[in-house]
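Re-run with default settings, no changes from the original entry. Doing this only to confirm the output is reproducible before filing.
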Amino acid sequence: MVFIVFLLLVVFVLIIKGTNFVDVKEVKIRDNKIKGCIRIVHISDIHGKTRYLNGSISSIINKYCVDYVILTGDLCNNSAQLENVMEELKKIKVNKRILIILGNYERTEVSYLRKKETDIIKKLVGYNSNKIKILINQYEVMEDSHNKILFYGFDNSVYGNESYNNALNEEKFTYRILFAHSPNIIDYIEKMGIPFDIILAGHTHGNQWNIPFVCRIWNKYPRFPSGVNEYDGKHIIISRGLGTSRIPIRINSNPDISIYDLCGKECR
């Protein structure tokens, strides 16, 4: 009996830690096309949760000198949470911009297991500023004396709203970073023959309940698992995200914040 109680206590502690402690990953991606080094933070699927055992989202990110933060959708579970999330994002220090795209929860929210339309998009675009930019099938270009980098944010492919400006294929960019909420975008990019160097996505939560063997049964996106996937000399990166949806616990799938240093050959 004592052993069972102890085991249940251990499982409880692991679930609490796994749901509320953010894994921070630093990854260096080398590419000779890049001159110098550009630091990008990728976060996703906040779902209204901004504070964790090891700090708030902004306090964790602000330990690093960051050029761009890319947030791949699902900021909150309902419109009431949006203001708190946006206030937290405003606290993040960036040299360039915070780029935000839409997820499925920006169009629908779940209430008592039922989906209903939400006005989050209308509210969200009101936060556009010099620091924060909402991309809905739109792009940002970072250009300096050495680099011309394309950041293209797709609308949510879960609902088939994605589109791309083919005229961009004719422009010369040092590097192309494409991002969308769902890994579904990968099929669209391949079908349309859109050139890229990095694709960023979220949505999967790393299955949220990542139970060995069982998770294989319900994994809707087995082609590219969470983390950094090398693909024909390029990178496809799927975030586990930060928050939870429906059931507010994670099992063996800690929330994560990923920091990517895109470096040229001259960088150490």
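Residues 97 and 131 are 5 Å apart (CA to CA). The chain is about 20% helix and 30% strand.
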